[in-house]
Please model this.
Amino acid sequence: MAQTVEPLVVPDIGKEEKSDPKGDLAPGFLVICWDDPVNLMDYVTHVFQVVFRWPRQKAEFHMLQVHRQGKSVLARESPERAEHYVHQLQSYSLHATMERDA
Amino acid sequence: MKFIKREGENFVLHIGKRKRPLLFEVLKLYPLVPAAHHRVSQTAKQMDEHQTLLEEALAERRQENKRQLVAMLHEEQRFKETDTGYRLTLSAPQMEWLLQVLNDIRVGSWLILGEPDEKKGKPVALTSENARHYAAMEFCGLFQMTLLDAVEHRR
Model:
């Protein structure tokens, strides 16, 4: 991911039923965003905020996870919802996929 | 390009006289990312139907984006001339749309450049053929940062 700015504070991320990959939801698909060297960090944060309606701190947390760990699980959803999110993220040209939750 | 102010729900941006033709030239490159570049899954093998749906959806979205782009570039009132350049007014959905268009050009240019990655010791191999894509990639990044600053200013 192309570097722009890094926040100084790592946020305390609260649990959200709809997007917690470890949540107690029916088995489904993980929505994953993968690192690449071209998408700007601020842009990725913005896209997460728009697509998932997350607050900036949570979006930054996942953006940094992508940047530092190579990927971030953004949501655990039904196939239809996962596909919807992947479509949204890819329309912003992010490297996102849906993977069956093992 | 720089963010000037909010006017109601709209964003007002300034673009210099020499930057406007550059922006137009860069926008003419859209779309650059091939629909098949995006994979719906990295591991699942029985995803053909999902992949087809994804490519169709992206192609449809790009067609609509291109139509809007052509309309915007030919809309005389969109860029109002000032003493030092032009004043560009965009609504929030138009800002979002322009961000997507610029990022498609940025990522598409990066693909054409052979996916350079400085962190992995794979620098850009510039040639006379791909130099314009390097410039497009960098300019799109700059324009995107201006738009993102404006959007963040609103929040």
User: Anything to note?
Assistant: The beta strands of chain B are 2-7, 10-16, 79-81, 85-91. Helices of chain B lie at 19-27, 48-73, 92-112, 131-154. Chain B touches chain A at residues 33, 38-44, 50, 53-54, 57-58, 61, 96, 99-100, 103-104, 106-107, 110, 115-120, 137, 141, 144-145, 148, 151-152, 155 (CB under 8 Å).
